[in-house]
Amino acid sequence: MSNFKAPKNWEFILAVFIIAYFFLIQFFDQESIDSAKLKEYLTVLPHNRYINPSLDYSKFAYVQYATSLVFLNLAILNFINIRESSSKVGNLVIVHADTLGENENDGSWAQLEKLKKLASEYGIKLKPVPLITNPGSKDSDWQFSFTKFHVFNQLEYKRIVYFDADSMLVNVESNDGQLVNLGPSHFDELFSIHEDIDFALPQAYWLHDTEKKYGSKKTQSRGGNSLHLASHKFDNRLRFFANHVMVIKPDAKVFRDLIDYIYNPLSWNFFKRDSLYKASEYDMEVLNKYFDDTLRGQVKGKSGSDLKKFGIISHKVYGVLTGEFKEKKHSSFVAEPQDLPFVRNDELREEWDAIDVITNARLVHFSDAPIPKPWEFKLDNAEYYNAVRIYCEKDLDIAKFNTEFPNHMYQPRLTSDCDSVLVWEWLRKEFERRREGNWEVEMTRRAK
Fold it and tell me: Model's pTM, two decimal places?
């Protein structure tokens, strides 16, 4: 009997087999998404300010994170505001990099000690955690942003309301054309979200693809609190949710899974290539990718028994960006979450009212790039930033305007929306007022 001889081109045959295998995997994984099935796991949550008095608030916590002394100070400022409010939640926790204040020679240790003392005065818990480094970024502003994921691992709490430290709680009314701060505030109502919801976040409305419109809302059913189209969710794999504010049920497995999404197991190169980490991704993209994979698996019945439910909270209440007040169009912002699939920015809508927006908002996120945030020190000439500001054109004194901004190349944009100018400037002044007497770190410097 002759000996069996393997084909000489076995490498080629193996390569063809592997390629065919991955092609079939991808092909069968593209099966249609059932919109009705998605609604079981993803729902738009109606906004209300009801606070359930029967809940055990000792099991809840507000949490922020910090990887620098500046952000630690910002987080403390926010928690001072909550502590001085009527919040029922006593646990105010800041998870921070365990490397803060290591160098005594640069003054950081002394600043950290001052911040610890300030936190202690207001009953704020500082919890050091290991840094989670971004493997694809050397940008100092974002290199450690994955440290945020430690929030999911705070297992001593039943539910957490997390928000970024570069945000500010607001409690505002308008009085005779002026904005008036009504005092310290909180958003305890987020702890009263139905207990079935594991994660609740606003949509990243500002990243909504206004060029992709799924249909006319006039021809769609607009009732209920569910998303109109599953395609709107799954076409926005990396930027559907905003994660600067989140309602979370802590979960050790979710935390471990997120770490895997950053530092991929070797097997992912063969069986989970679509979820591999890319150098251009940061905490928001990775979290969205994980949530997207979770929802896809559940809709397709591939996730076993540990099913997660997601809620969408109002971006008009908890997801307001300061930069929105400088925009020319606001179609995406004024839309309700379920109507975003039908919005295009070339559809002029007259629903924008800056005063109404700020008086209804509970949280504002400072986001005005390239304009530095209020605590950042501007280097060089401020003219560069003037060009991306707005200026009220009502009763404009052109001589005064040209004196204030003599370089015509860097003059603010004139706008008839004077309320937006008022709100934008008020927010920065309000931040300065709040940090007076409670700012313990040096101003950060940001080059033009």
Answer: 0.88
